[in-house]
Design a protein that fits this description.
Helix content of chain A: 40-55%
Strand content of chain A: 15-25%
Number of strands of chain A: 12
Order of helices and strands of chain A: HHHHEHEHEHEEHEHEHEHEEHEE
Strand order of the largest sheet of chain A: 2-1-3-4-5-11
Largest sheet of chain A: 6 strands, parallel
Radius of gyration of chain A: 26 Å
Largest interface: A-B, 54 and 54 residues
Number of helices of chain A: 12
Oligomer: homodimer
Amino acid sequence: MKKVTIKDIAKMADVSTTTVSMVINNKANHISQDTIVRVMKVIKDTNYIPNGFARSMVTKKSHLIGLIIPDITNPYFAEMARHIEMEANAKGYNVILCNSDDEIENELKYIRLLKEKNIDGLILVSASLSLHSEVKELEANNIPVVILDRVKQYEKEHIIIFDNRKAGYMATDYLISQGHEHIACLIGPLGNDSTQERLLGHKKALLTHNYRANTERVFEGDYKVEGGYKAMKEILKTDATAVFVFNDYMAIGAYKAIYEANLSVPEDISIIGIDNLYLSSIINPQLTTIEQPAALMGEAAVKMLHQVIKGHDSYDKKACFDPKLIVRDSVKLIRE
Amino acid sequence: MKKVTIKDIAKMADVSTTTVSMVINNKANHISQDTIVRVMKVIKDTNYIPNGFARSMVTKKSHLIGLIIPDITNPYFAEMARHIEMEANAKGYNVILCNSDDEIENELKYIRLLKEKNIDGLILVSASLSLHSEVKELEANNIPVVILDRVKQYEKEHIIIFDNRKAGYMATDYLISQGHEHIACLIGPLGNDSTQERLLGHKKALLTHNYRANTERVFEGDYKVEGGYKAMKEILKTDATAVFVFNDYMAIGAYKAIYEANLSVPEDISIIGIDNLYLSSIINPQLTTIEQPAALMGEAAVKMLHQVIKGHDSYDKKACFDPKLIVRDSVKLIRE
DNA sequence: CTGAAAGCGCTAACAT
DNA sequence: ATGTTAGCGCTTTCAG
């Protein structure tokens, strides 16, 4: 079946391609109603769909945006991606999904591919600051980038962040308010900015309450279930009565370690997480956590990107979302 | 910054665009090493990246494939999507992610958009048979489609399916083998083919063992946590000692209903699921389930699609994956 | 209100 | 071993 082109339509409707083009693109202000109807009919009849390549070639717009994200399998990112896709769609874009596994080589490879695909913009969820120059280059090539989550470069423009330090403070402060004195910390990879920020907040809370902020109680995880599980096994050997797990996904792993040891949350040990995954309210006991609004952040990223693509200039060039304490059942109140 | 084109490269390297084109596309068999090196250098120096539009316009290939999936937030689909993306990438494609929420209007809208984007092929995870004519039309337009999961149209080509009937049989058979006599069924939406097939398998197992296969014990869910939770509350009012939950995601919701009722799995009630999500081995107690290999199925879909795109013809035009019983801790052995 | 024609950046015959 | 050139299908001045 030969593909029908704008020329065919023009011929069949007995008009020029210009006219057809105009009615397709809703620029038919100066075209008679008669002609419009006639052209439309031919388009319907032939099932004509304009060729995006040809179109993009002249307009320089692909209506495609790239999304580089560590791993769609992680519920936090899945939630984010879902809302990014929805918002993008509402704004007329399709999104190209790229799982980087947080490997810089993958990110670089994807950036190259996406550039070749002429994406209109990129949303980057990455822990690698090293990408800085790549981002600069993209922007120089007129491909806007918004960096989402996991950045501390407050000075940069076009970023959507979360106040990780405040989140770290909040979680720790809450644990202390419930009477906990031996608080362990199940952190993410140390090289990660979010980890550093959350840790800073944690220490500040400790110090504020005149606790010692030593490093004996911090255990490194990987922001995944497996890492939470393993680190928790170690923590169980200590005298900690509560643990601040740096994300909910690891907390799920921590739960597993705990009930495998025949212990229970929060009776034997209290847990607080960060993220407020959907799952966090489903597991038993329901997880007390600090909400990080993945959905809103994803939407904000698309909105910002859209503004940049449109060439607007009257919008906030950075957004920072605030943490919120969600009290549920995984932290025990200890009386002194 | 003016975008550098193949012409610029040609001029700078003092060759024709053809030559440049050839070295870019590794078709430089007949080009002197000397020239190649010179051209390459210019390309590196200028950071030249070919314009995908122009290229695609003549080659008719976008190296983009569409993925229409109900909801990336569902761990089963996330797993599938992850592996689809990986395999696609290995084969040189990028994937456009579309969440349909299983709504046919969304699917239709996406199909239209994707057609306009000139995707090389489409992987469709959909429950709507009604899409049949759309698929036919895509294929007529030379855009291959492989339908993944949730189909019963064994007669169609280019499908990747799972033997849902066998899965239904297996789960029920196992429950019976453990001595359960009052088995409830927490099914998915009735309109769904997978649901129907699993139900058929379930009934067959019941009949085979001389049990009565009535409908009093079947409760409809939605394949999501929420539906599992709600339906389980109802099931708890019956005399069922075991429930066959039609997917693991609902089983997670069912668990919640159970411990909210202060009951426990498997002491008070046994649960078996389908899918074998990653989470299924993490929750407490670990879920006994029937494995459905989402990752493998996703990969198989990409491989098949690739074959069709390439115009090959010596490959299996349908693949059916087999269920596998994964025994863990959520089913109690009842002695008679 | 409508049409002619240039050109977007690239590939692939076809020449040489 | 390398160059010339004709499109690919569309949008967009510029004319009328």
